[in-house]
Design brief:
By secondary structure, this protein is of the alpha/beta class. Strand 3 and strand 4 form a beta hairpin. The longest helix has 71 residues. The protein is flat, with a radius of gyration of 48 Å.
């Protein structure tokens, strides 16, 4: 029996030799292909997963190492900055600040006073550095040696460079002849006088505190007096009809061409200069006085930053009279309360001790004030007995209503602008 799409059954053939039907072959092939696809996909996904997991772990390790390095660098930077701040503070202290100062003297000033001797005297008597150089004015300027710190954003490292920064102080040196000329102009025409010259000097050097040094005023005044005496003598000889001795019998004197000014004119010009331009004038006569003045100015400029810092950080209670309090046992709190009372005006140690004996803490005093009316609170401490002396020398007195009222206002007032007196 034959037919299309049908098997032919034969008795001679066995079931094992018979080929499978085409439809089953198609199903087996589809199953094998599907299983192969699934298996191949599973293997591929496993391989990809293993290949991807290794770089992720490495990235995580790299991130951890990088973060630890950053933390270590930040700690090193903190330590470095702390040491730098300590070194800067140490350099500003009075015992170290003079070593970091550099004084610059213009060569014109050094030529008048003697450059070699002047520099030798300045360097031997001070720890600062003194140099003779060319400046914009015939003056003296100052510089401070500092270490400038900078953080490199790329490498995250700290770098420092030693440099000299200019101080905002300048002392202009004037010869007595120029000073006398300015004083004369100041008396006749203020627009061209000493005060206006000082104002122009400050405008040309904005942001700099200017001072003036005048050289040889006493010698100048002596010359003026000698000149007046000579003129008076010549006048007397002319009136009496006598003649001066011949030139060969008398030493020739050097005639002074500087302007003649009196002491009153100099004082008026100095007062006007101080009021209008806030510039002070210092007078020196010789090289030694100039050296002393420059050394004093150098020391004052060197100690200025540390003194300003100390004033800004000033505490309410002096460090010498401060009291240490134990945070666990509270020991020392009575001493602190006594020290607080002594900060008030006219409160002696005996008065503070008497108040502390009655009210051992500030909290107890405030609790007592809360239970009283304002009039009663003002008189609460007025009857407290203050004992002074020992034995036969002991005397007693009361706190009094005035001090009791001030203490009440101090610890109960809610107005910060209220006056205690």
């Amino acid at each position: 029996m034959t037919a299309t799409n049908m098997w032919t059954i034969s008795s001679e053939s066995s079931d094992e030799d018979l080929p499978p039907p085409p439809i089953f072959c198609q199903k087996d092939q589809s199953i094998k292909s599907a299983s192969n696809k699934v298996g191949s996909h599973h293997i591929t996904s496993q391989n990809v997963t293993k290949q991807d997991e290794i770089p992720d772990n490495r990235k995580r390790k790299d991130k951890v190492v990088t973060q630890s390095k950053k933390v270590a660098r930040s700690k090193d930077l903190d330590v470095f900055m702390r040491k730098a701040a300590q070194a800067k503070l140490k350099s500003l202290k009075p015992e170290q600040c003079l070593k970091n100062m550099v004084c610059l003297i213009d060569f014109r000033v050094a030529a008048v006073l003697g450059a070699n001797v002047l520099e030798k005297k300045l360097t031997t008597l001070s720890e600062s550095t003194y140099k003779i150089t060319a400046l914009s004015e015939a003056c003296v300027r100052w510089q401070r040696k500092v270490s400038l710190y900078d953080t490199n954003q790329i490498t995250n490292n700290m770098n420092y460079v030693n440099d000299c920064l200019d101080e905002n102080f300048m002392m202009v040196v004037l010869q007595v002849s120029d000073f006398a000329m300015l004083v004369c102009k100041n008396d006749a025409d203020i627009a061209n006088g000493l005060s206006q010259w000082a104002n122009n000097l400050k405008e040309n050097n904005s942001g700099i505190k200017v001072g003036i040094i005048c050289l040889g005023l006493k010698k100048y005044n002596q010359l003026i007096r000698n000149k007046a005496q000579r003129d008076y003598k010549q006048t007397i000889l002319a009136l009496s009809g006598e003649e001066e001795p011949p030139a060969g019998q008398k030493r020739k004197r050097k005639r002074e061409t500087a302007a003649t000014v009196t002491t009153d004119e100099i004082e008026d010009a100095l007062v006007q200069t101080q009021l209008t331009s806030l510039v002070n004038v210092h007078f020196v006569e010789n090289q030694d006085e100039f050296v002393t003045l420059i050394q004093q100015c150098t020391k004052a400029i060197a100690e200025t930053p540390y003194k300003c810092m100390k004033r800004k950080n000033m505490m309410f209670i002096n460090e010498k009279s401060s009291v240490k309090v134990d945070s666990h046992t509270g020991e020392g709190s009575r001493k602190v309360w006594r020290q607080m009372l002594m900060e008030l005006h006219n409160v002696s140690p005996e008065m503070a001790s008497a108040i502390v004996n009655g009210f051992p803490s500030l909290n107890q005093l405030l609790s007592a004030y809360q239970q009283l009316t304002p009039s009663e609170g003002e008189n609460l401490l007025s009857e407290v007995i203050v004992r002074r002396g020992v034995g036969s020398l002991e005397n007693r007195r009361k706190i009094g209503p005035e001090l009791s009222r001030r203490i009440y206002r101090m610890y109960t007032s809610t107005d910060g602008n209220a006056l205690l007196h």
